[in-house]
Amino acid sequence: MPLEQIVVLAIVQGITEVLPISSSGHLILIPVLTGWKDQGMATDVMVHVGSLAAIIVYFWRDVLTILAGLLDLMRGRWSNRARLAAYIAAATVPAIAFGLALKWFDLLDSIRGIEIVAWNALVFGIVLLVADKMGSRLKAMADMTFGPAMIIGLSQALALIPGTSRSGITMSAARFMGFERAEAARFSFLLGIPAITGAGVLTIVEMNSNGHVMPPGAVTAAIFTFFSALAAIAFLMAMVKRMSFTPFVIYRMFLAGFLLVLAYY
Question: What is the Cα–Cα distance from 29 to 262, expressed in whole angstroms?
Fold first, then answer.
């Protein structure tokens, strides 16, 4: 890949993976608008690794708390941090199960059409708007219980359908459950760590089994993605403390409209 393609891909992936605006919708637009060839599976994996690293670095205190909670669980201690770790683990199961089902029934390719991405960007943008307007501002992540965690986890499974936005749908579910915007975003990012890790590991295993090799530009793309995702996280966390998700909803409407024009005209 040329350097300019690596830079554009990394910036777009880093920002759109974090913000609730659908990374898949934007990745579809890159080759359409530039004429570049598909970057390949290896690069896709590495840019997700870059996003994952940014989440871990930004929320390093929460990550250490979850790791300590896992140790507490192994020791049979049901502490506050053990509960958080257990909720994150349990809420990850629906996405894993849904992903395996899509793969088992060979549906992954059939749900990647531009029309599906466009309609999901539109529909789940409206869901985000409704959730943000209806959701209260009462609960913090410390108030998380098993029920809300599983509902948010179930919503994360829907993000496997392109155009939904993993961060968007999980934050929508958290807002419906009454969590503050910043706390909804925080739990969404922490929930994404095992999901993104698992998807990356599975993809790497599949690559190795098929004899694929890591291209040189993939590592560079991961580094650029890390910095763009880190900046996007900082921007989102600062923004949601001051205003609603409405600007992201409006942007999704424009994105969906543009994709629908591309799909049908």
Answer: 10
Task: List the domain boundaries for the chain.
Answer: 3-264
Instruction: Give the DSSP letter string of 82-121.
Output: HHHHHHHHHHHHHHHHHHHHHHHTT-TGGG--HHHHHHHH
What is the spatial distance between Cα 129 and Cα 210, in angstroms, rounded to a whole number? 42
pTM confidence score: 0.92
What is the number of alpha carbons within 13 Å of residue 18 lying toward its C-beta? 30
Query: Confidence class of residue 41 from pLDDT cuts 50, 70 and 90?
Result: low
Give the span between the Cα atoms of 13 and 47, in whole angstroms: 7
Torsion angle, alpha carbons of 101, 103, 107, 109, to 10: 150
Strand partners, 179: 139
Tell me the two tokens of residue 170.
Answer: 């999980």
* Predicted confidence (pLDDT) per residue in 176-232, tens digit: 999 999 999 999 999 999 988 887 787 777 777 777 667 778 888 999 999 999 999
